[in-house]
Structure to design on (358 residues):
């Protein structure tokens, strides 16, 4: 459907209402099934464009343009952050008509100094808004202080720092997802179990905010269920891009510690552990990790990974751009904290999850 001059398309109404174009079409033509929440959102937008100045026309008539910079970790093809970038780019395309320019800036998530350098680059671009993943707590707080001094609004995705003055957050409830990970892990383990908790080494800073919060939730589950006295946790730090070193490290642990029943990692690299366990002939270990990566799915289907806990990264990124646009361009009220669903995936339901289109 082409947009005539001075008109709003179904696609534009969908963006403003935060629903799909198909949902708008069903409301307009009163057909199909639409939730009451979605119907109210669409009707609210329809009222606005009927009785108020045309929002799209108003934004086009304005001489002001907006530069949003998205700051998040660099990645290789197929990794978690690729989905984040896909969501950002989808939003950039859809909000181009509103004079929103979206720029991407990456940093090394395993080196806090890389984040600091990337933050300096962001400031040189003189952004109107920043959407970022706060991997490093102290470095992020220093950066957000600079943004606040210059009255530059910012939002968080993937994880958040609660005492920062952010506009919106989209991501999991990190602590709760770790709590759920604990519940899944312990439901079939015998008493006096040994469990590996695996972390990835990071240079110049403590662990990533997301993984640390997930771990806190996991430990809270253990404490609430009085598992601390009957469970031995073996904390292991492995290294990015050093498979040989990691395999030797795990082999030593297996040689010295008999009876390891389970393992969990609080990041998206569970496929790496699955590969190591397979090489070391320990596919029986119950293994839990995060995120719907192609390699993670492969090991889930092979029953080497028992559970994946997913968090819809593309939607996080898209909604962050959308809400920042609503806030700056249309002065609309938005929700500050937006928790995405915590999806629990096993080999029996993964294909339905992947093939479903919202």
């Amino acid at each position: 459907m082409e947009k005539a001059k001075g008109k709003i398309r179904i696609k534009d109404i969908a963006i403003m209402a935060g629903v799909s174009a198909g949902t708008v079409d069903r409301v307009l033509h009163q057909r199909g099934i639409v939730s009451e929440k979605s119907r109210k959102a669409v009707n609210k937008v329809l009222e606005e464009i009927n009785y108020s100045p045309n929002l799209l026309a108003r934004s086009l008539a304005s001489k002001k343009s907006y530069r949003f910079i998205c700051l998040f970790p660099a990645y290789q093809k197929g990794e978690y952050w690729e989905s984040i970038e896909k969501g950002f780019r989808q939003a950039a395309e859809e909000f181009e008509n509103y004079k929103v320019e979206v720029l991407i800036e990456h940093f090394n998530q395993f080196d806090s100094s890389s984040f600091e350098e990337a933050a300096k680059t962001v400031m040189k671009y003189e952004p109107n808004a920043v959407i970022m993943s706060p991997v490093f707590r102290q470095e992020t707080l220093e950066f957000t202080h600079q943004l606040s001094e210059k009255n530059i609004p910012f939002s968080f995705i993937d994880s958040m720092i609660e005492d920062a003055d952010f506009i919106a957050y989209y991501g999991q409830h990190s602590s709760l997802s770790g709590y759920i990970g604990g519940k899944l892990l312990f439901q079939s383990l015998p008493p006096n179990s040994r469990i590996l908790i695996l972390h990835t080494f990071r240079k110049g800073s403590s662990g990533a905010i997301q993984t640390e919060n997930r771990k806190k939730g996991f430990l809270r589950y253990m404490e609430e269920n009085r598992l601390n006295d009957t469970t031995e946790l073996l904390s292991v730090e492995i290294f990015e891009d050093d498979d040989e070193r990691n395999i030797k490290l795990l082999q030593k642990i297996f040689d010295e510690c008999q009876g390891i029943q389970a393992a969990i990692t609080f990041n998206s690299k569970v496929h790496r552990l699955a590969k190591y366990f397979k090489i070391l002939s320990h596919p029986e270990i119950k293994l839990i990790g995060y995120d719907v990566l192609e390699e993670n799915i492969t090991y889930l289907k092979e029953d080497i990974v028992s559970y994946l806990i997913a968090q819809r990264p593309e939607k996080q990124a898209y909604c962050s751009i959308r809400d920042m646009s609503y806030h700056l361009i249309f002065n609309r009220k938005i929700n500050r904290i937006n928790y995405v669903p915590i999806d629990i995936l096993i080999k029996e339901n993964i294909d339905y999850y992947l093939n479903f289109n919202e």
Notes: The chain has three domains: 10-59, 64-171+313-340, 174-310. The CA atoms of residues 107 and 115 lie 5 Å apart. The chain has 14 helices and twelve strands.
